[in-house]
Inverse folding.
């Protein structure tokens, strides 16, 4: 899959990737091809909130959230409100979780998922620019392209589906705060899950 970066994104990769993880900074610009063969860039979504979700279908932490229908419900709820949801798979060829575009689309359909786009980041460029460490690892970007949340999906780092309804969802809290025009109170947390398979 094709992944292209802006000069800003490339600079982050070469010398300052920590900046990409800094909440309150502009989110790293990227251009990538979706599994549907469409080229998208972050700048396409100016004026809309964006959620980035790192995934690996073989990871038990990802399976927890999809098995409980949590991730799908969030995707449907957020996209219905106009938020752009991009699911990113940074598993390299030959590594756990790597899929073809066809496999990714089949997974989306089988799980009843509803992201706006799915991107296969095979060379890891987007993942490294954002500092994505785990699956899932979640990011929320506001309408002006500023990173407002970076971290875990929720407060309970387990693989048990029964924990989903008991957990506080950080992504929901961040988006609700932005909808109210308020600052995101919990803007940075420690992500949990399987390591991204760069």
């Amino acid at each position: 899959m094709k992944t292209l970066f802006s000069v800003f994104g490339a600079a982050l990769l070469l010398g300052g990737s920590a900046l990409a993880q800094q909440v309150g900074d502009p989110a790293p610009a990227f251009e990538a091809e979706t599994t549907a063969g469409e080229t998208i860039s972050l700048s396409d979504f100016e004026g809309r909130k964006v959620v980035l979700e790192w995934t690996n279908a073989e990871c038990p932490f990802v399976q927890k959230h999809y098995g409980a229908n949590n991730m799908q419900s969030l995707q449907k709820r957020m996209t219905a409100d106009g938020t752009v949801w991009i699911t990113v798979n940074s598993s390299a060829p030959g590594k756990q979780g790597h899929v073809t575009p066809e496999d990714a689309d089949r997974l989306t359909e089988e799980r009843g998922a509803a992201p706006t786009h799915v991107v296969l980041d095979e060379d890891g460029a987007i993942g490294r620019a954002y500092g994505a460490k785990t699956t899932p690892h979640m990011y929320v970007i506001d309408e002006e392209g500023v990173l407002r949340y970076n971290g875990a999906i929720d407060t309970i780092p387990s693989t048990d589906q029964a924990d989903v309804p008991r957990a506080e969802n950080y992504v929901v809290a961040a988006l609700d705060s932005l909808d109210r025009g308020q600052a995101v109170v919990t803007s940075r947390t420690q992500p949990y899950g399987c390591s991204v398979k760069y």
In short: The first strand starts at residue 3 and ends at 5.
